[in-house]
Amino acid sequence: MLAELLHALAHFYEARAGTDEIPMLDTVAEVLIGITEGESPTAPEPGPLPVVRLLEGVDPGSDGLLAAFLSVAPDLPWTQTRAYVDSLPAEFLDNYGYVRLVGSAGVVHSERASIGIGVWGAGLRYPPHVHPAEETYHVLAGDVEFRGADGVYRALGPGDVAHNGPSEPHELRFGDRTCVVAWAWTGEIGVDARLVG
């Protein structure tokens, strides 16, 4: 099942690579294709968080990546950014979490990219934060407003992407449905995000 999710991720990013709009997606696709061409990874130990309950109401429709994720989500090693656990309220923490499928601390090791899927509950505000890695967010389900370094909020829904460069502050405001986002980092992937402002 994990192999199916990694193949779906590889297909997803391969379809988005090769454009000048967001060159980092080439690296993400290369890493995932390399993983899927190798041996199947060992299934990780499950590590559920309260946020997993929100996935029961998410309809994958015809989205192959979302369907693959939903089919294995309860069995994946969920986590939260350590600095957030120490500083954000329980309401946020009970409705937020992510799975790092690829990366220096991922289910599959890579020093070139960190790739995962995150879930945020309806109505949450992900405060301004920053990290040295370049990042993309691809919305798979739900609605979110993304504010990047330009300070302008952009409404995003399924199929939309947001991109931020290294060390650019950004924040997200989630709509009235559970939001599922595929995220990817390149560059300095070993340093976690930190809240700012």
Overview of the structural elements:
Helices cover 22% and strands 32% of the residues. The protein is globular, with a radius of gyration of 15 Å. Strands 1, 2, 3, 4, 6, 9 and 11 form a seven-stranded mixed β-sheet that branches. Strands 8-7-10-5-12 form a five-stranded antiparallel β-sheet, with no helix packed on it. The chain has a single domain, classed as Jelly Rolls, CATH 2.60.120.10. It is of the alpha+beta class and 197 residues long. A hairpin with a 5-residue loop joins strand 7 (144-147) and strand 8 (153-156). The model has no long low-confidence stretch (mean pLDDT 96). The chain contains five helices and twelve strands.
Number of domains: 1
Structural class: alpha+beta
Count the beta strands: 12
The CATH first-level class comes to Mainly Beta
Distance between the termini: 40 Å
H/E element order: HHHEHHEEEEEEEEEEE
Rg, please?
15 Å
Mean of residue pLDDT? 96
How many helices does DSSP assign? Answer: 5
Shape-level CATH architecture: Sandwich
The name of the CATH superfamily reads Jelly Rolls
Give the low-pLDDT segments. none
Biggest sheet features: 7 strands, mixed
